[in-house]
Design a protein that fits this description.
Blueprint (H helix, E strand, L loop, with lengths): L7 E12 L3 E14 L2 E14 H9 L5 E15 L2 E17 L14
Parallel strand pairs: 3-5
Antiparallel strand pairs: 1-2, 1-4, 2-3, 4-5
């Protein structure tokens, strides 16, 4: 039996939350440093995460700027546009933790949402 797996793990700050009827879309900013010449510069990488069910309910309780940890699985997608197949990857959240509310210096880690 194969034990292969593909997962993602993101820790960052929420930039936007877009709730819909059965799904919630969350954008999470992750900062990282990169050396350019002799100097280190800070960059932001934006991650779009899709949440369903209880995980979507949990995401809707978060706020812009909150520090969150999201884990889940990548899911390959494909659709047709103008006769051409467009391929992509969706990040589907399986667990959503709110670690720190924006503007709160304490640790507000909340339980997992499965």
């Amino acid at each position: 039996m194969s034990r292969d797996t593909a997962e993602f793990h993101i820790i960052g700050n929420i930039g936007s939350i877009r709730p819909r009827e059965k799904v919630t879309y969350v954008r999470v900013a992750v900062k990282y440093s990169r050396k350019e010449g002799d100097e280190w510069t800070e960059h932001t990488r934006w991650n779009s995460v899709t949440c369903f069910g209880k995980v979507a309910e949990k995401a809707q309780k978060a706020g812009v700027g909150d520090l969150v940890r999201i884990t889940g699985v990548p899911e390959e997608t494909a659709y047709e546009r103008g006769g051409e197949t467009i391929y992509g990857t969706d990040l589907i959240a399986k667990h959503f933790y709110i670690h720190n509310r924006a503007g709160n210096g304490g640790d507000d880690a909340s339980p997992d949402a499965d």
